[in-house]
UniProtKB/TrEMBL annotation:
Annotated Gene3D superfamilies: Protein tyrosine phosphatase superfamily
Pfam families the record matches: Y_phosphatase
Protein name per UniProt: Protein-tyrosine phosphatase
CDD domains per the UniProt record, alphabetical: PTPc
Domain named Tyrosine specific protein phosphatases: residues: 69-129
């Protein structure tokens, strides 16, 4: 997949072991002298430690303790030119969350597309904010409806 999609970066959202359980294999060389037979590059980003420290631990089946944008910034930066691989242990919880954030972010460009179709669409900042508020209410109602549906099935 990495070679097929020409990925240049990998974002790992788990530790090799968590709570004494293996979560990921070490797929990179332990030393700089170890031979590597691929064209992937390791990137270090100049983010302040306080931006990244809170994100270093993202618990399995959970979320980071803060809503710092460090992971989002890293994703935006590495995903500009070529696709990147994002993974955790199973590839569904943490990975799905980060990929979902990226997908929703990309859909924010819909207003630009709408304005290309209809000049002046969504004229004011307050209208843009209103759209997002309505969508948050809809999302919350869907969540509540889903929880109630599951509860009623019991």
């Amino acid at each position: 997949m990495i070679w097929q999609e020409k990925c240049r970066s990998i974002i790992m959202l788990c530790n090799i072991t968590e709570g004494g359980k293996p979560k990921c294999e070490q797929y990179w060389p332990l030393t700089a002298e170890s031979p590597v037979s691929c064209s992937l590059q390791s990137h270090r980003f100049p983010y302040k430690d306080e931006d990244w420290n809170e994100e270093k631990y993202w618990p399995d089946r959970g979320v980071p303790r803060t809503t710092t944008l460090a992971i989002f910034r890293i994703l935006r930066r590495v995903n500009r030119l070529t696709p990147c691989v994002v993974h955790c242990s199973a590839g569904i919880g943490r990975t799905g969350t980060v990929v979902g954030i990226d997908m929703v972010y990309r859909r924010l460009e819909l207003i630009t597309e709408l304005r290309e179709m209809r000049h002046g669409a969504v004229q004011m900042d307050c209208q843009y904010v209103y759209m997002h508020r309505i969508l948050l209410v809809v999302a919350e109602n869907l969540k509540v409806h889903s929880i109630l549906t599951c509860f009623l099935r019991l």
